Amino acid sequence: MTNAVFFVSCPSIESTRILLLRIYGPSSGVLISRPKELQTLHVLSSKYHIGPCVYGTFENGRVEEHFDATTLTAADMRSPQTSSWIGARMAELHNVDVQDVEEARGEDDHWDIAVAKNVQSWLAYAREVLALPGVSADVLRALDLDAFENRWRQYARWLQDVESAEGVSRRVFAHNDTQYGNLLRLKTLKDGMPEHRQIIVVDFEYAAPNAAAFDIANHFHEWTANYHLDTPHLLNPALYPSQDERRNFYRSYITHCLAEGDVSLSDEEMEVELVRLDRQVQVWSPASHAMWAVWGVVQAREMVEGKDGEPEFDYLGYATCRMEGFRREAHALGLSM
Questions:
Q1: Domain range holding 131?
Q2: What is the pLDDT of residues 312-330, one digit of tens each?
Q3: Is residue 42 part of a domain?
């Protein structure tokens, strides 16, 4: 939703490859470190064969590898087979050595968790947007950032207590934005390749160390989105994956997480892991809403300033929807907000 993408070809010259030209969105600079993203893409593509190769860069964009693939749709993600493939691919990304793509901060190799870092750093930019004269009183009431920050801190303390008591969700290198538009399906698969490898993950703008459960919860929230409807900014919680759909995803994810160590689980052990992972996803779920609520406000600057012409996406409406989701899910977990 923040980049313009073009396919570049030269049909007059035989055997030339199609390339992808990506132009960065106008508000993305305050949200994304492009040098860090390029470093991530280089390491993932060269060492782990994940994501596209980058062939060249310029100030507001880059040229990268084009995959002969189709972009998944909202309906595609609901297919049990496709969902299990996505789970497998997410497991492979989560098995990436964080040290390969992130610089350690401190002697104990501690990395900032992306969701906490993003919410904290983006709030200042969000406040600037809501201070602009084009923001209505109704929007200011719906997106009360002072109240949100207090609720976020309350939730973060609660989450820390839960992880201390129940166990910590594994810290991994996470994609953090596995919506259907960032998932491709190859039209052909090379001989001998596992079938789940036909799913290609792209757009690593927000990829960073995070809780594994956050990445999964965030993906499940994307089941409730359809960016091709008349109201693409509104999520439909009724479309959140059922318990059976979540367990289908988890089985594939857990199996492929363990595959690197050549470990297998008995049925009883798998059941324990399924229950544990579902609980972790549940407690991290509000964090996804919180992060994207603040993101939506920051992205709304062009729209609020009237520089966006006829906006294609209602970022403030999206932020309001995600803010409501944060409060709703935190309340469901027993937090009084």
A1: 69-332
A2: 899 999 999 999 999 999 9
A3: no
